[in-house]
Design goal:
Number of helices: 6
Order of helices and strands: HHHHHH
Keywords: Membrane, Transmembrane, Transmembrane helix
InterPro entries: UBC (IPR000608), UBQ-conjugating_enzyme/RWD (IPR016135)
Distance between the termini: 52 Å
Structural class: mainly alpha
Largest sheet: none
Radius of gyration: 22 Å
Shape: elongated
Protein name: UBC core domain-containing protein
Helix content: 55-70%
């Protein structure tokens, strides 16, 4: 999910039976249509899951109205969907030579900031970096311990 929707947190993995969170529930008989139907139904309900957010219907409507503007500001989106850039220009009465808004950084950070605010996003990112550092240090310590045990056993 790249665009703030009010249902899923942008840039986060989703805990769904069809996602990599639950490989044991994957069914190879699922088609693209089945998966899209499942995602569509999940968008319409309010079941909590990892990667989901709870917002009011008014917030979801506001995000939906601003989604074209948000997406057109992404260079990646403009490259993949030029017809939507044309639609954006026509809706905003912009000539084809007029530039569209540009977002210089990645969509994940911008979308998260839009939904929950920069301070919270910064705090979470710092926490994730610390967590990754702890995991790396623990892995190195375990490797050193295993090598020393192996050396003493020999």
């Amino acid at each position: 999910m790249e665009t703030p929707s009010g249902r899923f947190r942008p840039g986060r993995r989703l805990c769904l039976s069809m996602s990599d969170f639950h490989p044991e529930t994957w069914n190879p008989m699922w088609s693209v249509g089945t998966i899209l139907t499942g995602l569509f139904s999940f968008m319409l309900e309010s079941t909590p899951t990892l990667g989901a957010v709870e917002t009011t219907q008014a917030e979801k409507s506001k995000l939906a109205l601003s989604s074209l503007h948000y997406n057109v500001s992404s260079p990646k989106f403009r490259g993949l969907f030029p017809s939507y850039v044309s639609k954006y220009r026509s809706l905003n009465s912009l000539p084809s030579s007029a530039s569209v808004p540009v977002r210089s950084s990645g969509t994940t950070r911008d979308a998260a900031t839009m939904l929950v605010g920069g301070d919270l996003v910064d705090a979470v990112e710092r926490g994730v970096r610390r967590y990754k550092d702890v995991i790396a240090a623990t892995g190195v310590a375990m490797l050193v311990l295993a090598v020393s045990v192996w050396a003493n056993v020999r």
